[in-house]
Design goal:
This is Anti-sigma-G factor. InterPro entries: Sigma-G_inhibitor_Gin. The radius of gyration is 13 Å and the shape is flat. It is an alpha+beta fold. The mean pLDDT is 84. The protein is 38% helix and 19% strand. The protein contains three helices and four strands; from the N terminus they run H-E-E-E-E-H-H. A hairpin with a 6-residue loop joins strand 1 and strand 2. The strands form two sheets. Strands 1-2 form a two-stranded antiparallel ribbon. A two-stranded antiparallel sheet has the order 3-4. The chain has one domain. Bound molecules: zinc ion.
């Protein structure tokens, strides 16, 4: 009875609606993409793509 199974959400990386995944802050990453991010080497060109997507999660801190 996991709510994440019932509600499809749009993954911020593949931009597809998935039912299973994790929440980071207010964003959603599907299980497939989470695994890809974890298994991608930092030297892999794709890694920069994932990092860029993941960074969009964070609102830049405002130092005032
Ligand atoms: Zn995804």
């Amino acid at each position: 009875m996991d709510e994440t199974v019932k509600h499809h959400q749009t993954c911020i990386i593949c931009e597809q609606e998935k039912s299973r995944g994790i929440h980071l802050y207010t964003k959603f990453i599907c299980l497939d993409c989470e695994r890809k991010v974890i298994s991608t080497a930092t030297s892999d060109p794709n890694y920069a793509f994932y990092v860029k997507k993941l960074k969009s999660i964070h609102t830049p801190p405002l130092y005032s």
